[in-house]
Amino acid sequence: MKPLVSEIRRYLRLWRLLLRLSLSEMLMFRINGLLFGLAPIVWAATVLIFLGVIFSKVKTLGGWSLWETVFLLGVSETVFVVYWASFLINLRNFINEVRTGRFDQSLLKPINSRFLVSFRTLDFTLLGSFINSLAIFVVSLAKVSDQIHFSRLPGFLFLLAAAYAICYLFHFIFASLAFWVVNARPFLDWIFEIADFGHYPAGIYPPSLRMFFTFFIPILFFGYFPTAFLLGRLDNLYLGIAILLILALSIISRLVWRAGLQRYQSASS
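Request: output the structure for the sequence above.
Response:
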């Protein structure tokens, strides 16, 4: 038990160091960081106007009211910003490293290579996006607070953590295809684009598509399921489904990673 605790502490110290380096890099380019901070304001205004136009014609969208839909948007975008800043940018860089042969440098470092390629950098330029998404979350939460029961809060927090884990594992599996294809980045771009389907109530999709977005491309876990659970629209069954999905994706990602490492040929080969 002690060796495990010691190893966890080692990686936490390393991650803190990586965070400091990432912050230092952002402060070197303040103007760039400022521009990235202003862009989310334009995005939020555009999306809210879009939803306003839709709800000016209908009372509900897939059985969800305006503020319930805005709340879903706030949750989904907050999860999106966190996963983009913490690991997606790193997985994109990893794909380039494999293609150019610079992945050798990660393999030579005295640390788990999967951890390094997944969490090497934290993109602090997305801080503005995070604050913006959090503001939408807080404001809309106040509007739907009468539908929320405290007893559902632990399940909501668990599903948020599960959303991050599922999102990471799913993206990691596709990023690992870089060991087999020349450029695996289009796979991540495809997931990025299709994830927009999870920003809207699942009731607008036919049952077959909801099933597809739950078990095969689990984008509904990225934001919809946590939000629906908190609003009382989902039962406890999905907590178990989330656990099983995490276990399945963990096994698949481990197998794909190991097979990829065996296939990889270094730049010196």
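The longest helix spans residues 66-100.
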